[in-house]
């Protein structure tokens, strides 16, 4: 289907181009690529128009996770087509404009890339046929808008405006996400077409109101509706092309796009009328009044944008079909005149050097063409006849007169409509007259002159569009508008006539009143407006201040209060809270449930009981000795570990026993290596206060409680009959499908290979972290010196001049020799463990640790220098190779058409070794083996090396001492 | 057997938790090790205790003759991860000792 591929190309082109722009570098290339991409998208959009013929929607589905309802669905109907044209068309004009507007020393590659990526995300929203996909692109636009507002990131106001826009719009996006999940839950599908067809069911559902509120939070924040409007004026610190593109024509329209998109599903209820209509009305009034009092050109435009968005929202909220048509029409009209006004404001700023209305005036003498174009656009904004703004405003009046919610509402709506229009006349006049008319001044910050032709062209084209639509509406905008309205409203599409002259109708009178009143107000109150900095009455209420207050509350005040309530800077109270909370959670879960605490266990083996008497003694001993006798505590811990290791053997878990034993050895070595850097702690060093004793007793009670609880729980769990788990599956399939007899190993490397993959990644990350932390390790000065024993021995040998045999030189000579001889045997044993792992206890983990134990024994017995002269160990390479091997084994199965990490097994005859089980899982296990060897030895070697670095540290300490 | 193992888990956990709440870094690291023993045994015992029923397949044996392999696979992973966390914590402990000059968990000496 050529249309399908065109739509796909339209979506992917901007993103591709955005990446390419970053690679080409250079202003010329970047801007040309941006302009060409926008032009190509525009052509594609024009090209797919025939697909919309007769109210059809173009639909292209790329399946991703159909079972979860997650697919990439491209869907273009008349309504989204109108948006596509707006995005691509204004994108193209803004691209041309930006090329001349942006400072010439800016390479622009980042700017173009961001603008293109934004365009792609916007197209993504409009073309989404799946609501989750829609939310995804929605959040992307928030992110790119953030980056674009903060483009000139040297400025504090740009950074602040960007942050505020991101928090408001992305927060709204999260609400929208929740709303869409609810909507999907109600309908049972995330597909837009299915949802659009289920309007009745959605409105009748009990979850309708929360869902509506969430969706509205998303839409109204994006479209800068009251009370979330404050981010838009703050976002004006963005470069002007960005304001013209994002904050007038496209992104802020995403909110109203969403409202119209879901109009058939959500509208028609009272909640919709009051929430959407009410918000729109408030925003319309607030924006219009605020715009009148601004002194910054872009702020005038920002508030007028808010007000026009309010108008559109109100039209949508009224719930009449003609209102929806008027809303669509006004979206297009507003985008054309507002984008051109923004560009004109940018041109003024660019040429005259200021945007302050009080410093401007009389610019028509210097830039007549720009002045003409800007006046046309502002007239369109004011709703002057023969321009596009007039037509949609008339439609708005017509709708406002017929809300059919009782005469009072009708009257109020009509009056407010006229009032807001009068205000829009006032601020349009302020913009046009205040900047371009009046006497020429001689105190502009820069001598103004006409901007370059290519900067005027986009403004001119948009102004031309205003005039064309305004004069020949039926010819120019009629068919696409009808198609757009039809795709939203379907069979309910009202008949509407697009004509400049409808006769002497009430809307015409209302227009006239608004125009005349606006002009009178402007003429009378001109001086008053120019003298004000803030709004009268509403000046004190500032959304921005509220936002900052809430933000401070959430990020500073509340955390500080929490920190005050729970003294959480200190670890001990934190841990205490964690332990208590965990015990409480377990306690409440156990409370009331009758645990089967009978004594019907299997009989007690006295040997086992004796074993654990020893184990328990070791654990308690470790607990008491850990403060003053670290080595003893370490040995006692090892004892407890060994006892649990024996229990594993006893209770049919040979794999566990092997791994535990080996890990025990390595842990002990690691901690032994670290012991040397800890300060000496001698009993009685610090006085034992009463508070400390109390705390110890309290902790003892807590510890006893936890132990008792866990023991009870464990006892109950062991007596509880084992539920039917998936273990049978593993036992049955281990050999037939995994090709191994050792079920535990088959589970690890085959059935649950993905988990093991994660585990070795964790191991690798930990090893790298340890390595990185130790590279910058600064030991305490007092533990830098050699240990006391070594120093004494060295002093003794120095004193008697080597008369007796040197102990230091022959340090560990016999053990060293033994270890040197044993090392290959240990490595061989590791390999044996590895090879038999699939069928007998062993496997990659155990084997990896065994090999690294061999290495560490060598280090300990022979010293790091001796080993490193003879043996090149590159732990980082082991880790890398292991991870690569594991991943590529997993990927290998994809090459054969199976899911990631599917294994294949076969027993094969290998010369010399006999029949061997060869499974691809074995290759995976080899990866595990390599990672474990690498990670363990990296950690151990890095720790061992700290003693070698000692001389340098000593030198540094000496230097710092001299400096002092 | 069950009673013995349950008591063992309790003693290990109690010693571990007590050490966890102590102020010295070394005590905390030993405490974590003891707690990991307790938790590993706890997870392991969920599958029920069996002697002489290794989950290594033999010719012609019935499935009921094997112990549950699933907790074992879980614990095997847990053992390796607890080693990794111990090593990481040890290095953090050493770095903190080097930076603050003492071995108190908060880096501030004075409280026992």
From TrEMBL, chain B:
Q: What is its main location?
A: membrane
Subcellular location(s): the record lists: Cell membrane
Q: Which GO terms describe its cellular component?
A: plasma membrane
Instruction: Give the membrane topology.
Output: Multi-pass membrane protein
Q: Does the keyword Membrane apply?
A: yes
Which InterPro entries has this protein been placed in? CPA3_antiporter_subunitC (IPR050601), NUOK/Mnh_C1-like (IPR039428)
- The keyword Disulfide bond appears for this protein: no
| TM region positions | 29-52, 73-95
The signal peptide stretch is: none
What are the record keywords, sorted? Cell membrane, Membrane, Transmembrane, Transmembrane helix
The family note in this entry says: Belongs to the CPA3 antiporters (TC 2.A.63) subunit C family.
Q: Which NCBIfam families match?
A: PRK09094.1
- Know the name of this protein? Putative monovalent cation/H+ antiporter subunit C
């Amino acid at each position: 289907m050529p249309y399908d591929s065109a739509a796909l190309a339209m979506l992917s082109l901007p993103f591709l181009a955005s990446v390419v722009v970053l690679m080409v570098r250079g202003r010329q290339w970047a801007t040309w690529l941006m302009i060409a991409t926008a032009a190509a998208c525009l052509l594609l959009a024009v090209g797919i128009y025939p697909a919309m013929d007769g109210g059809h929607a173009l639909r292209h589905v790329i399946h991703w996770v159909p079972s979860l309802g997650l697919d990439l669905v491209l869907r273009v109907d008349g309504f989204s087509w109108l948006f596509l044209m707006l995005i691509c068309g204004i994108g193209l004009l803004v691209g041309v404009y930006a090329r001349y507007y942006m400072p010439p020393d800016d390479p622009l590659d980042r700017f173009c890339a961001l603008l293109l990526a934004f365009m792609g995300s916007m197209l993504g929203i409009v073309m989404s046929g799946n609501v989750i996909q829609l939310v995804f692109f929605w959040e992307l636009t928030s992110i790119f808008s953030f980056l674009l507002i903060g483009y000139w990131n040297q400025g504090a106001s740009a950074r602040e405006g960007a942050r505020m826009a991101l928090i408001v719009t992305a927060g709204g996006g999260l609400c929208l996400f929740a709303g869409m999940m609810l909507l999907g839950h109600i309908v049972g599908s995330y597909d837009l077409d299915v949802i659009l067809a289920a309007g009745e069911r959605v409105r009748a559902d009990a979850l309708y109101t929360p869902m509506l509120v969430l969706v509205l939070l998303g839409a109204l924040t994006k479209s800068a509706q009251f009370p979330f409007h404050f981010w838009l004026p703050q976002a004006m610190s963005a470069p002007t092309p960005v304001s013209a593109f994002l904050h007038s024509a496209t992104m802020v329209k995403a909110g109203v796009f969403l409202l119209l998109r879901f109009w058939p599903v959500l509208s028609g209820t009272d909640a919709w009328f009051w929430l959407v209509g009410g918000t729109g009305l408030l925003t319309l009034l607030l924006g219009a009044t605020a715009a009148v009092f601004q002194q910054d050109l872009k702020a005038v435009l920002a508030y007028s944008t808010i007000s026009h968005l309010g108008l559109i929202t109100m039209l949508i909220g009224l719930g009449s079909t003609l209102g929806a048509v008027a809303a669509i029409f006004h979206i297009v009209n507003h985008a054309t005149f507002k984008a051109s006004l923004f560009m004109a404001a940018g041109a003024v700023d660019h040429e005259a050097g200021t945007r302050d209305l009080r410093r401007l005036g009389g610019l028509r003498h210097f830039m007549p063409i720009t002045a003409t174009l800007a006046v046309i656009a502002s007239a369109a904004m004011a709703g002057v006849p023969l321009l596009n703004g007039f037509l949609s405003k008339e439609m708005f009046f017509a709708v406002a007169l017929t809300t059919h919610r009782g005469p009072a509402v009708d009257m109020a709506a009509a009056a407010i409509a006229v009032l807001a229009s009068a205000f829009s006349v006032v601020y349009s006049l302020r913009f046009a007259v205040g900047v371009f008319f009046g006497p020429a001044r001689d105190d502009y910050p820069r001598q103004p002159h006409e901007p370059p032709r290519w900067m005027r062209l986009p403004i001119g084209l948009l102004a031309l569009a205003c005039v064309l639509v305004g004069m020949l509406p039926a010819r120019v905008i009629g068919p696409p508008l009808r198609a757009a309205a039809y795709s939203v409203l379907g069979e309910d599409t009202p008949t509407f006539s697009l004509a400049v002259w409808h006769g002497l109708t009430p809307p015409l009178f209302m227009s006239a009143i608004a125009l005349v009143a606006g002009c009178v107000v402007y003429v009378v109150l001109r001086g008053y407006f120019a003298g004000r900095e803030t709004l009268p009455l509403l000046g004190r209420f500032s959304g921005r201040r509220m936002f900052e207050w809430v933000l401070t509350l959430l990020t500073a005040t509340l955390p500080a209060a929490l920190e005050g309530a729970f003294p959480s800077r200190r670890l001990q109270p934190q841990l205490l809270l964690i332990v208590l909370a965990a015990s409480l959670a377990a306690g409440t879960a156990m409370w009331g449930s009758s645990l089967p605490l009978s004594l019907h266990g299997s009989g007690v083996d006295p040997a086992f009981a004796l074993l654990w008497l020893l184990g328990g003694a070791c654990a308690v001993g470790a607990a008491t000795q850990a403060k003053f006798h670290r080595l003893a505590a370490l040995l006692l811990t090892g004892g407890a570990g060994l006892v649990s290791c024996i229990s594993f053997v006893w209770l049919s878990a040979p794999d566990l026993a092997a791994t535990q034993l080996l890990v025990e050895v390595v842990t002990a070595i690691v901690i032994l290596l670290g012991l040397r850097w800890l300060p000496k702690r001698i009993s009685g060093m610090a006085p034992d206060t009463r508070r400390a004793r109390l705390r110890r007793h309290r902790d003892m009670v807590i510890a006893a409680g936890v132990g008792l609880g866990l023991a009870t729980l464990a006892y109950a769990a062991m007596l509880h009959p084992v539920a039917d788990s998936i273990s049978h599956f593993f036992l049955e399939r281990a050999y037939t499908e995994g090709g191994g007899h050792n079920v535990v190993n088959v589970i690890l490397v085959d059935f649950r290979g993905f988990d093991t993959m994660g585990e070795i990644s964790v191991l690798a990350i930990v090893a790298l972290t340890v390595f990185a932390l130790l590279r910058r390790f600064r030991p305490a000065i007092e533990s830098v010196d050699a240990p006391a024993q070594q120093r004494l021995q060295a002093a003794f040998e120095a004193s008697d001049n080597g008369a007796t045999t040197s102990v230091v030189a022959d340090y560990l000579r016999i053990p060293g020799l033994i270890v040197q001889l044993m090392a290959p045997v240990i490595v061989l044993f590791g390999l044996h463990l590895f090879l038999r792992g699939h069928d007998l206890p062993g496997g990659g983990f155990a084997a990896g640790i065994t090999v690294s134990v061999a290495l560490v024994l060598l280090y300990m017995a022979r010293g790091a220098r001796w080993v490193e002269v003879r043996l090149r160990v590159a732990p980082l390479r082991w880790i890398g190779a292991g991870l690569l091997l594991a991943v590529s084994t997993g990927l290998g199965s994809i090459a054969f058409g199976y899911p990631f990490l599917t294994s294949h097994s076969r027993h094969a005859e290998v010369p010399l070794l006999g029949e061997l089980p060869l499974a691809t899982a074995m290759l995976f296990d080899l990866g595990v083996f390599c990672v474990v060897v690498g990670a363990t030895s990296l950690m151990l070697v890095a720790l061992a090396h700290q003693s070698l670095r000692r001389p340098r540290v000593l030198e540094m300490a000496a230097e710092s001492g001299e400096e002092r | 057997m069950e009673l013995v193992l349950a008591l063992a888990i309790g003693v290990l956990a109690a010693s571990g938790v007590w050490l966890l709440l102590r102020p010295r870094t070394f005590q905390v690291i030993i405490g974590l090790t003891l707690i990991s023993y307790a938790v590993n045994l706890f997870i392991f015992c969920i599958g029920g205790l069996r002697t002489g029923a290794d989950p290594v397949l033999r010719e012609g044996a019935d499935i009921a003759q094997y112990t549950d392999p699933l907790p074992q696979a879980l614990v095997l992973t847990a053992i390796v991860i607890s080693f990794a966390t111990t090593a990481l914590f040890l290095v953090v402990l050493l770095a903190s000792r080097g930076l603050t000059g003492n071995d108190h968990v908060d880096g501030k000496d004075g409280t026992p």
